[in-house]
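hey can u check if this looks right to u? its 149 residues, i copy pasted from the old doc so theres a chance i mangled smth
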Amino acid sequence: MKREKKALENFSMELNCAQAVLSAFAEELGVEEKKALKLASGFGGGMGRLAGTCGAVTGAVMVIGLRYGYTAGDDKDAKDQTYRLVRHFAGQFTTKYGSILCKELLGHDVSTTEGYREAVASGVFKTICPGCVQGAVMILEELLEDSTN
């Protein structure tokens, strides 16, 4: 199944943006899907509904880390490459959507009860979030392909 389709399918099953993005890449990165879903479960709504960094972005950062991340503090090359790829991803996402912050993308501060209720009532989770999930996967696919060439 294409990654975009898998991510959107998972998002449509009420998984959060981070779960949707990470799960689309999990198997090929050697992570059991259930573990990936658990790992990303706290990152929805801009990290625990704090309205910070978009879950689609944090899911993408986890994918980059799994592919290129480092395990030793003195692995300067891997650290530099990982951070460069994260910055590149964030730049591409910002260019496409105007921000990497959930609050700005949704136009509602979901960290407050009132803001969350307004977001639900306005339907932004069904109109804005799927596009961010799909876009994150597309940007990631291009980024990962370019960095292996």
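The CA atoms of residues 54 and 102 lie 4 Å apart.
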